[in-house]
Write a structure and sequence with these properties.
alpha/beta, 11 helices, three-stranded mixed β-sheet, 2-enoyl-CoA Hydratase, Chain A, domain 1, 48% helix, globular, Lyase 2-enoyl-coa Hydratase, Chain  A, domain 2, 259 residues
């Protein structure tokens, strides 16, 4: 376990378990937590032993977004905070070639809700929820929500979520496709661990390339994606993991992907 001031990370069994650790402030972001979180993401990206990440929050909340007390500093700058904290975090998560699971243990608001949307797979406690509360204090969407929301729920629902500032329950989030699973609070850890071990055992290069393909599909034509599929399938088909997958299939056993 590596313990920072505001973020903890444990790397074990090819899984990096990252915990936002400011429970007294509902794991809201301020400069130190943003800096430490980015540092932890860098460590996970550069550590070849890490095949998947799990992000969660300590205590009752997942992440309440920006710490408004921190935002009241005389030297606080929206432009600087977004440029140096939120945008780098979201970009790093989306561009990291490793699957990132969100263990949504409680409420995620503002930039915290954007962080949820940036993850690849979201498992929510039935007690969790999402909230885009920017409008309630006269602000606009940030940290990628204006990009993620319309693509995940369509324009009209995205407009509703952004402009009404009303909480979305875990079950509603599931029905909208904002989370993958909703489970009881008691089952959250076991379900997250099962999914984390699944991805930790998966062929890492294939997962990395599929994440890149899905990212690019938003801005690409069908012809572009067909060409990219051809290129990446050719690469995947030349790997030892492909040979191991074939062999395991024929031998009716679980493959041991080495990456």
């Amino acid at each position: 376990m590596i313990m920072y001031q505001t973020v903890n990370v444990e790397i074990k069994d090819k899984i990096a378990r990252i915990t936002l650790n400011r429970p007294q402030a509902f794991n809201s972001f301020e400069r130190e937590m943003s800096r430490e979180f980015l540092e932890v993401l860098d460590i996970c990206q550069n550590d070849a032993s890490v095949r998947t990440l799990v992000i969660t929050g300590e205590g009752k909340a997942f992440c309440a977004g920006q710490d408004l007390k921190d935002a009241m500093r005389e030297d606080f700058s929206f432009e600087e905070t977004i440029n140096q904290q939120y945008n780098p975090i979201i970009k790093k998560i989306r561009r990291m070639g490793k699957p990132i699971i969100c263990r949504l243990n409680g409420i995620a608001a503002g930039a915290g809700a954007s962080l949820v949307l940036a993850c690849d797979y979201v498992i929510a406690s039935e007690k969790a929820g999402l909230l885009w509360a920017f409008v309630n204090i006269g602000l606009v969407l940030d940290s990628g929500s204006s990009w993620f929301l319309p693509r995940q729920v369509g324009h009209r629902k995205a407009f509703e979520l952004a402009t009404l500032g009303k909480p979305v329950s875990a079950q509603e989030a599931l029905s909208l496709g904002l989370v993958n699973q909703v489970v009881s609070a008691e089952d959250l850890d076991s379900v997250v661990e099962k999914m984390a071990f699944h991805y930790a055992s998966a062929p890492p290069l294939a997962i990395k390339m599929m994440k890149e393909m899905l990212n690019q599909s938003y801005e690409s034509s069908l012809d572009d994606m067909l060409e990219l599929e051809k290129q990446y399938q050719t690469i995947a088909g030349s790997t030892d993991d492909y040979q191991e997958g074939l062999k395991a299939f024929l031998e009716k056993r679980k493959p041991d992907f080495k990456g």
